[in-house]
Amino acid sequence: MPVSAVGRPAEGPPGLERLRPVSLAEINERAALVTRTCRKYLLPAELVPALFAGAERGFGVLEIGGRTSFLYSSTYLDTPDLRTFHDHRQGRRLRYKVRTRTYVDTGTRMFEVKLKGARGITDKVRTELPMDAPVDRLTWRTRDFLDRSLSRCRLDPPDVLLPAAVTDYRRTTVVALSGEERVTVDHDLVGYRGGWEVRMRPDTVLLEVKTRGGLTTTERRLHELGVREARFSKYAAALAALEPRLRGNRWHRATGRCMDHPVPSRGHESAGRDG
């Protein structure tokens, strides 16, 4: 069990208790949004109740087995020279990200490729893996899936991918019953690399608003509360915080606001500094 899971409750952040529970099947029916625009916001956890105040009629919260907060563990794979990190840092219009994601509470594992297109649209493709599949390296199956996914976008597949970082966090998913948007609320984020770890401060949450259109109801409310979109990537922020030699200036301001100083790690030794 990852370190960040120890002693953590199964409930989500305060302020979401009044939203009606919805199943994963209903969320996928109403707002799967695999191809979408995704905008991120960092905000104090104490603002979550105000953000969703009065939203009972229009929003629901994912519940599985009585839980509304779920532990995710993502192992990011990158080239030896960290090409996907640098493509993101430089803001390349066509880029991708590769990870193995484990949904710890539901016992599900996915190999995922996130593709960023020229118009800023994110397209996520994935394939389910058995829980005993390796998370830190490609197999013949995931190599074939990666090559086909990138080739469809006219991107050259990398020759080698190595484990670069691990991120653990808890996620609560809120969905607009209209299908307009899906909002993920992430907290307890921990990044690991090369025997070190960095944690998001407990008074901060990361919101990701996924939609196919312009500003959503939630985003307009965020703006009313004085919260603006943040440049933030869990993988890139963790990597930049744990590797001082890397130029992570694209996320420097946001990372400084929400991340603690790196400390020796108590878990996840597989993502090495040479990868």
Describe this structure in words.
The chain has an eight-stranded antiparallel beta barrel, surrounded by five helices. Helix content is 20%, strand content 34%. It has one domain (3-264): Hypothetical Protein Pfu-838710-001 (Beta Barrel), CATH 2.40.320. Mean pLDDT is 88; it is low at 1-9. A hairpin with a 4-residue loop joins β5 (95-103) and β6 (108-116). It has 275 residues and is α+β, with helices and mostly antiparallel strands. The chain starts with 19 loop residues before the first strand and ends in an 11-residue tail after the last strand. InterPro entries: CYTH-like_dom_sf (IPR033469), VTC_domain (IPR018966), VTC_sf (IPR042267). Residues 36-242 form the VTC domain. One of its GO terms (biological process) is polyphosphate biosynthetic process. Pfam families: VTC. This is VTC domain-containing protein.
Major beta sheet summary: 8 strands, antiparallel, barrel
CATH superfamily: Hypothetical Protein Pfu-838710-001
Fraction of residues in β-strands: 25-35%
What string, H for helix and E for strand, traces the elements in order?
EHEHEEHEEEHEEEEHHHE
Structural class: alpha+beta
In the predicted model, the low-confidence regions spanning at least 5 consecutive residues are 1-9
- Rg over CA atoms, rounded to whole Å, is 18 Å
Global geometry? globular
Counting structural domains, the number is: 1
By CATH reckoning, the class would read Mainly Beta
- Mean pLDDT over the full residue set: 88
CATH topology: Hypothetical Protein Pfu-838710-001
Distance between the termini: 23 Å
Task: Please report the total strand number as a whole number.
Answer: 12
**Do you know the CATH architecture?**
Beta Barrel
The total count of helices amounts to: 7
Helix content: 10-25%
